[in-house]
Amino acid sequence: MANPVLRTMLQNREFVAAPGVFDLVSTKIADRTRAEALYMTGFGTVASYLGYPDAGLATYTDMLDRATAIAAATGKPLIADGDTGYGGLLNVAHTVRGYEKAGVSMIQIEDQQIPKKCGHTPGRHLVPVSEMANKIRVACDARSSADFLIMARTDAIASEGLDSALRRAEAYVQAGADAIFIEAPVDVEQMRIIGAAVDAPLVSNQLHGGKTPILPQSQLAELGIAIAIYPTAGLFAAAAALARTYDDHVADRPVSAPLYGFHDFTEMIGFQQVWDFEAKYGDLLKEETAAAAV
Prior knowledge:
Elements: H1 5-11, E1 16-21, H2 24-31, E2 38-40, H3 42-50, H4 60-72, E3 78-81, H5 89-102, E4 106-110, H6 129-142, E5 149-154, H7 156-160, H8 162-174, E6 179-182, H9 188-197, E7 202-205, H10 217-222, E8 225-230, H11 233-250, H12 262-269, H13 271-280, H14 282-293
Parallel strand pairs: 1-2, 1-8, 2-3, 3-4, 4-5, 5-6, 6-7, 7-8
């Protein structure tokens, strides 16, 4: 079920920084940091799990599978990308119940038409305000606990302008959204206007390589931001390190990228628990091996 820590932090107006995780290794590493929460990035999860672009190609089942595994691998609250809710109102209710059961603490639902696209790429189209507001109402009704939070995202700035984005945000707050995510403001002034206008916890997508300025957390808080998500930094860092390492192998060069230590990695991934189990049940394991050999 949902971790109540995230709701408490938002109620107490504590700033939340959520690194983006995209697989189980990134989750386990991020879980060992001082991060207040983690963000399951749709962009990164679709890329790492399926090798596809974030263009509406992943299904609800694909993403629920990843959300379930990631939530089980961390003790921190997990914010998870739920795309458009994967369909109409009945789909939204099903998605919310599935994500909540998986252990997610906040689901992100956006107002794009299906198939949706990454919020920092062109060609996005939106559903009517009323349709998205109805999705938020259904999402709020479908959850079993108030600790499971509903984040409403709008991509309106790119296609309809900032004023439209603010009107949509207000409609989604009225529909019951616990947090608002206005995607892709292009400068600090737009971020300032959003912070002053929206009466709800705000999410900033600190996407490295995207359209929105990457700002210090203190400045984000001053602008009225409650949650900063960093969806791509870990993914891009890992991809750069892999590309560099594989090039070194092919060229018969020593590996030049920094490497996570073997001992540190085996400890992080859980080998110590395996060794402790073997030490405790060594006699039983010997019996099992002998029986299998007969």
